[in-house]
Amino acid sequence: MRCDVCLQSLNPGSGYEEHVSRHFTRFDCLVCNRRFSSFEVALSHYRTKHCKSKFFKCKHCPYISRVKDNLRHHFRSHRVGKIT
C-alpha cells in the first residue's frame, strides 16, 4: 500500500488512515503560529518555548524540568537523596 500524498510505502495494517491524516491534521501554536502534526508535539513546543514557568535543574547533570516531581524522579537515577 502506498500513501497517495507522500508516496511512502506502508505495510498492510500499519495504520494507513492515521498516516494520511497526519498530512492534513495540523495543530497551530497559539503564540507563534508554528504548525505541528499532533497535539502532544504542539503542547510540548508551547511548554518549552513559550511558557514562563520556573525550571527545576539537576545539580549533577544538564537535566531540567518544569515539573518538580519529574526532577525528584530523575534524581533517583543519581541516587543522591531527597530534593529540598
UniProtKB/TrEMBL annotation:
Keyword Membrane recorded: no
Domain of life: Eukaryota
Matching InterPro entries: Znf_C2H2_sf (IPR036236), Znf_C2H2_type (IPR013087)
UniProt entry keywords in alphabetical sequence: Metal-binding, Zinc, Zinc-finger
Domain C2H2-type: 27-55
One Pfam family recorded for the sequence: zf-C2H2
UniProt GO MF annotations: zinc ion binding
Protein name (record): C2H2-type domain-containing protein
